[in-house]
Amino acid sequence: MSLSSTRSLPPRVAWPGALQFSLLIALAALIIASFASVAPSPERLATGIPRMFNLIGRMLPPDLEPGFLARISVRIVETLAIALAGTVIGVLLSLPVAWLASRGLSPLRGLEFLAKGLVSFLRTVPDLVWALIFVVSIGLGPVAGTMTIVIDTIGFCARFFAEAMEDAEKAPQEALRTMGASRFAILAGAVIPDAMPSMINTGLFALEKAVRSSVVLGLVGAGGIGQELEVAFSLFQYKRAATIILAIFVVVIVMEFITDRLRSRISS
Amino acid sequence: MSDTSLTLARPPRLDSDENRSLSAQSPAGIYAVSARYVTKSYAKGPLILSGVSIDIREGETIALIGSNGSGKSTLLKCLAGVHPINSGEIDVFGSVITRKTKQASLSRIRGDIGFVFQNHGLVRRLSVLSNVIHGKLGDGGSWRAFHQAIAPREMREEALAALEMVGLADKIGSLAEALSGGQSQRVAIARALIRKPRLLIADEPAASLDPVAGSDVMTAFADIAARSRTTLLFTTHDLEHALNYASRIVALNAGAVVLDAPSASLSRASLAGIY
Question: How distant is the Cα of A95 from the closest Cα of chain B, in angstroms?
Fold first, then answer.
């Protein structure tokens, strides 16, 4: 049997058109320009890497003086308190915001984009910028840190809560709607129970994220362990800085372990 | 009778004059539902219902049959005031639905109706009890019905009684996702019953079930309707179900009624031409 056709084969590669080709060239130029201006040069790496080893040498051994450890412990607790309080308030506030932003469920009917826009704005402004704003407006300390975490959590959770609500099973919603249930009744009775596992997962991710953020917020004066780290580096107390970095590492790892366990429990 | 007994008979509502049917063809108290020349289309699409007229007496069990797209489900939703109609008039227990009927009136009308869907529409992550209590979330219900934990005691007792009626009282604490298809559908019936409906509407209630579970569900429907003198209107593609469980069969084709006859006068062979 011989297999033959009179038709011509398609090309192996679809070549870009003139516009696509121009855009690709522009993108390549942008990448090369970025490398040229901000990527580390071999000379800087050659001088920087030995300096880094030198710094690590000056950080060892970490400072384990009991009085300092006690102060660090208090700051760690404060950091966790900022993360926990900020996440809980943020998650609670995310629920109504997500409802307003969710397509097909929002009582705003056609104006969901306003709530979505607000959530996008909260999410795209970096947490350090929020922290600076709150430090200036509220003052130095953990309250500014908590407010920052609240805003950051709303930006993160409201988006995923809204998506979970939109993805909730439609049949129970339709059943309740047919019975004449209100939008709020449908939300509370059918949407939230179905979206709950996904929302708890998101909340746990938010808590993990909040712990990492609250560590850094201290660098701009918003309370927590970051403030101690900033002081240690400013005063060239590298052994103390090493202790703080190790403490942060332990806290973040423990928090990730706990939230991982909780997530696997929920999914099973 | 136990404390948890559910009384399905409810007194007739005293509707305002504006909602009272003036049509001599649909005197309240005789007909549960009386539809006249109902037309319905979605957006600017073709007519799904083109002048449907149907009378359903109180206590009757009607099977609505017809091929896919014939307008069965649309007719159910129009009769229940869920979907607005384009023209015509529907009298439900003396309250009239027209194109201009306001939402408040539709809500009152829906309070007399229980619904059961092909896919049962239970919230899988909630308990059977919470799902049954959801029946009270609808018109004339209570916001406390969204979860059994905060529902009033009498609501919980009514839910238990409704579950006893469908033979699933022992599953009251189970999660809905742990139920079989047939059990889920019976819970959906209990959810409809807790509304103490005068009219029970079921859209292909046995379609997603195996033959045995499907027959069980239809038997439960027929028993409950007979015991409580509730009017039952269901759609089906299963001609055996239509012949065995309905006192009357109405067939739709392309949005129009093409057959309306007592099931005793019909046979599988005589219905074959509908499809």
Answer: 17
